[in-house]
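@channel sequence for tomorrow's demo:
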Amino acid sequence: MSPMQRDLLDRFRWVDGHADIWRLFADGAFFPRLAAALADPFRSIGVTHVAGIEARGFLLGGVVAVELAAGFVAIRKEGGLFPGGLCSRATPPDYRGRTRRLLLQRHALGAGDRVLLVDDWSETGAQALTARALVEAAGATFLGLSVIVDELPAAVRSRFPAFSALVPAAALGPSG
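structure tokens (generated this afternoon):
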């Protein structure tokens, strides 16, 4: 186990049966290390933009974009304000059986852009695969996915050109 994995697992908590990922962001010494660890596998592949899905993906994507000296592109869930022309795609059902509509500003990406998606946790890949479709519909190249926690089935994980996770969900222990 790497020092990052050990430190992440030491800080992780289940609260009332829910994963408390937010606590990882509150630790001023740990948060920059977390951002670097999410960025590290992708430093040499020419990332021009980092995308993040609302809400925790905004936070993580922003700090990883800074790490990689790249731009940040927001992918919003339907219902939030998002000016200008939009690309829109519905997700397949997520781990709760819900579908969502994800939105990307049309002008945010184009040909020549190389995009890394960053998120906290990937359970089914529904949102990540939909984000990939939005990035590609905008004419950009989707490079891969970097997450803190991986719970993806192998068949879904293999659908990403590159994939990196800091810990598998099984390492977090029971949800209490």
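heads up for whoever presents: The chain has six helices and nine strands.
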